[in-house]
Amino acid sequence: MKDKWLRDIEYLRVSVTDRCNLRCFYCMPDEGVSKLSHDEILSFEECYKVIKAAVELGIKKVRITGGEPLVRLGIVDFISKIAKLPGLEDIAMTTNGMLLEKYAEDLKKAGLKRLNISLDTLKEEKFYQITRKGDLNQVLRGIELAEKVGLFPIKINTVIMKGINDDEIQDFINFIMEKPYEVRFIELMPMGEAQDIEKERFISNKEVMSTIPGLIPMIKSDELGPANYYQLLGAKGKVGFISPMSNHFCKSCNRIRLTADGKLRPCLHSNFEIDIKEAIRNHNKDIKELIRDAILAKPERHYLNEKRESSIRNMNQIGG
Ligand code: SAM
User: Fold this and answer.
1) Which of 139, 181, 258, 260 has its CB surrounded by the most CB atoms within 10 Å?
2) Element housing 145 (H / E)
3) Does the C-beta of 160 come closer than 6 Å to ligand 1?
4) In sequence order, which residues have a C-beta less than 8 Å from that of residue 191 and are 6 or more positions away?
């Protein structure tokens, strides 16, 4: 399916919950956010209906995210049901890794192909400070297990913030010298909790790159993705840079989002949403029609650098 700007839209990101077992200070308030009731969030059956319709329309890739997707009970069965959808080529998940030790093997068996794991520090104490409750070693054990059961590739998403973890860029590089993972440095975006700290904490990826000697640019593969990748001599893994602020990749944006409470969101940075839950529950609108509407409503690009539209949701609610 093409949008108004002739981009091929073939990627759906599905947030299955707004709940999270961590409280990363730039993402969620300490006390959490007002949790949606069971009735407010889409049931797995309803999510499945949307995904099935989207795949029939031409969506080829689905990513399950949240909140933290692994805290939702029944997630493995849900993955195994989606994985059987004819026409769906890729099914991935974004997780904070806290529950990976428990689920990696079952996720692989269920048909999950690959994982993005959010990890902003390799220091135990700092991990606890950033996430306000996490256990770094638990996450690292989960990542090891995910690698062992063959979830591949493993991508580590790291938001670099001034004065928080910008002293660890080399540590992450050392990590991928030894491990076959892709570390992707991501620029902090002024959304949710980060709106107040972004000015003080933002570092452009240009600055981050300038601290890493020996980067060898890789030719972009066919897979449309936001990261620009680099190799390093002797490294088992590679390094990527995702620069939504300094070098936005809207031109190649190929995605729409489904929020946990059943809204189709054409652009991460625009508050425009289409209520698909209401259509499913009242049987009053064609789901496929609404998916098409969402695709056609995709703006050409985000305007975060010009006029900031204060986001009505935090990342945990949209599905980062
Ligand atoms: N719980 C899962 C996880 O941790 O990967 C999925 C949801 S989490 C909201 C997804 C990603 O959003 C995380 O990698 C987090 O770092 C990122 N994120 C949250 N707020 C952000 C911000 N203001 N700028 C950049 N990335 C952000």
Assistant:
1) 258
2) helix 136-149
3) no
4) 269, 311, 314, 315
For ligand 1, what atom is nearest to the CA of residue 194?
A: 23
Helix-helix angle 44-57:287-296, to 10 degrees:
60
Ligand 1 center–CA 189 separation, angstroms? 10
User: Each residue of 269-291: b (16+ CB within 10 Å) or e?
Assistant: beeebbebbebbeeeeeebeebb
pLDDT (tens digit, 9 = 90+) per residue, 27-75?
999 887 767 898 999 999 999 999 999 999 999 999 999 999 999 999 9
For 129-173, write each residue's pLDDT tens digit. 999 999 999 999 999 999 999 999 999 999 999 999 999 999 999
Residue with tokens 């107040």: 196
- 27 C-alpha to ligand 1 centroid (Å): 7
Could you tell me the two tokens for 275?
């209520």
316 lines ligand 1 (CB under 6 A): yes
Among the listed residues 243, 82, 240, the one whose alpha carbon sits nearest the alpha carbon of residue 154: 240
The Cα–Cα gap between 177 and 160 comes to 19
Q: Are 269 and 305 in contact (CB under 8 A)?
A: no
